[in-house]
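Problem 3 from the worked examples.
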Amino acid sequence: MGDNLWTCSIVALNPDTGKLVWAFQASPHDTHDWDAVQIPVLIDGVIDGKPRKLLAQASRNGYYFLLDRTNGKNITSVPYVPINWSTGVNANGNPIRDLKKDPSTSGTLVEPSAHGGTNWQTPAFDPDLGLFFLHAERSFSVFFLTDTGPKPEGYGGRDDKIWAEEFIQAMDYRTGKVRWKHDIGPESNYMSMLSTAGKLLFSGDNSGNALALNPVDGKTLWHVNLGGIMNNAPITYELDGRQYLLFAANDTLFAFTLPRQ
């Protein structure tokens, strides 16, 4: 009943007491298994010409949220992938669920699937470009209501995914407007993002390639096949004066660096 506060929410806690300071609910009364544990990004940005301390999240339900992280007030709530389960947002920026898209005993076609517009993949942010990067997905599932009793477990349902395609996407952090998309193939995986001050964006695709992209337009600068899917985030580090780039695929680590001069 009701919104089920504070499930599927972004929350701020007092670290000394553990008490709730503020909360923003991404999916009030979630009926599609869309937790809101996607990784938030803290941004010191500018909104309407004024400096603001912000929090950005691409949530699993397909909405991009930009909040004032000092008080949890909503600034932006927009879909970042196509969705069909919401009729819009309320005055506080919370999505309004379309009851016709709840799970049913005969099955309901919903976009996105329970896997979501993104999942636990790490996003990235470039403060100079003002771009928020994420591994995104467009997908459809048929959601079935499997428990019609008075006290169902969870939302009492499950989904059968019927189609998905994935892409790396860059968005204006202020508005959520998509600046570019880079297709990475069908199905669902978990490649994360790494952006650098040297204006490079690293991730992977669904064919087992490690990718270096131009963060301005998403075009491929370099790629190498790792022989497996990279379901994690690349990292970079310096060792003995050399900069390394590390990817993992299957049970193998791959380290790359420029040749010595």
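Problem 4, a separate protein:
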Amino acid sequence: MQSLPDLAAERRRNAALTYLLRNAADWNEAERTSLADSALGLISDSRFAAVFGETSRAEVPIVGRIALRGRAPAFVSGQIDRLVVTPDEILIVDFKTNQAPPRTAGEALQAYIRQLALYRALLGKLYPQRRLRAALLWTETPELMEISAPALDAELASLGAGMAELDPATGRS
């Protein structure tokens, strides 16, 4: 799903099937076609237009340190599945595949919330004037589940963390 949105719509299906033939050769044709159709359906779903639109980027690396109260700063390194950057806001999206989503954002696994909270804290220093949002994209249902700012803040606080001290030029604190 990371490179298909960058292709012209008429080329996506062939690219998806070619990729799966090369990387999932032990799957049968029906399985590969089903997965390709699922990925293409997500990308073309109007509910997710911003996630896969022109202002989004795939697999964005992120590195920095988070200040912790009474402890050494925590090093954070990861990769954001989709990052949407507009003049007014930043949307961090993490894909969750092959899983049925919880009924509510409050039931999402703590590890998922923690990951989004850490990414949001790091990006807060790079984009201090923009609203920062974070969401989980459940690919099986499909559903975009936004995690509230208070939930992200609470998770960050539970780590004893403050906002990241990140040098935008180097990506390090």
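Solution to problem 4. The chain has two domains: 4-44, 56-164. The longest helix spans residues 110-126.
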